[in-house]
Structure formats: structure tokens, C-alpha cells
Fold TetR/AcrR family transcriptional regulator.
Amino acid sequence: MTDGVEPGTVRPGGRTARVREAVLRAAEDALTEQGFTGLDLADVARRAQVGKTTVYRRWGTVTGLVADLLQDMAEQSAPRTETGSLLGDLTANARLVQRTLTDPRQGALFKALIAAATGDVKTAAALHRFYDIRVREWAPCVRQAVERGEVPEGTDPHDVIRAVSAPLYYHLLISGGRLDEPTADRAAEAAAMAARAGVFVRVGGKQA
């Protein structure tokens, strides 16, 4: 392991890439079925059909494995959609989040990861990095809306994107409400309306 580098954060190349893919998919399976508390490196190695020594040497800890899984999920996520309007872009974002959270496998996986993050600092940091990557991927659509004059100068792109996803995660984790496409569309419309009204404008580093 490279000095100062967490296990699981160095990207492998060549033949080891296949091992990484197998182990990460096995980790997804284990998390989906058993949750974070049931995640065990030896079990993941068995599922991936690789040696336990390889898994322990490569990832070191369960949190190291989860961090690498979240990094991979961020990189594999669909790129942003550009429709030419802020509402269209935010709707595409909301529907992507909605489809992900209602997918039988992905929804269960995110629930497990979020639950783990509430009690583990390193998992929480990895989850924060995941969402930071996704927010930065979609932020340009808000900047483009500023350039088109759809929303005021100084609108914080990251706050707008977060405002789209927040109610969808609320439905998933708290309210138990219906998380369907119309719900996603309403979240996008609310965020777009708030952005046009200047709710997300920051003045002097503070939100107006």
C-alpha cells in the first residue's frame, strides 16, 4: 500500500481490474441482502471467487471497500442530460434519481449505505464524496441557465441540484410516500421555480 493512501482508494489496472469489478459487485450483493452490519470481507471474497488474502490486502477494511464501491458508483452513474432549459435539465436529473432509488437493487443498496454512514465516519465521508461528484456533474446545467438568463446571477448551482434530490430522498427514507415519476417532476419544478425567484442566489458568500 502506498504511504498515506487509504486501502481501496488506488485504482488498479490490467488484470487486477477484473478482480476489482468482481469484488465490488459481490460487495453490492452483500450490502443489498444483508446491510452494512452483515458485510464481511471473507464473505465478499467467497462471493467474488477470489482469495481472501487478495481482498484484505487490496481493501484492508470494510470501510475501505465501501469507499471504493461508492467511488465506482459515482464514476458509473449516467452523465447529465442537456435539454436546453433549466426545468428540462432538472427534470431529467430528478427522474434519474427516482429511477435509481426505486430500482429493487439500487434502492436497497443506497438505503444500506446511508444507514451505514449514520454510524461510521469513514463511510459517511465516502458517501459525501459520492454525492459531491454527482452534484458537480449536474451543476453546469444551472450555470448554463444563468448564461441564458433563466435564473439570476449568483445562483448557487450546487444548492439547486441538491434541492432537486432532497425531497426524493425524504420519500425514500422518511415519509414512505409514493416515489414515482410525477413526484420527481414536482421536485424538479419546485427547484426550478425557487431558482428563478432568486432563492439560491448567494451574496457575499451567503445565501440571500
User: Anything to note?
Assistant: The chain has two domains: 16-73, 80-207. Confidence is low (pLDDT under 50) at residues 1-10. Residues 121-148 form the longest helix (28 residues). The chain is about 70% helix and 0% strand.
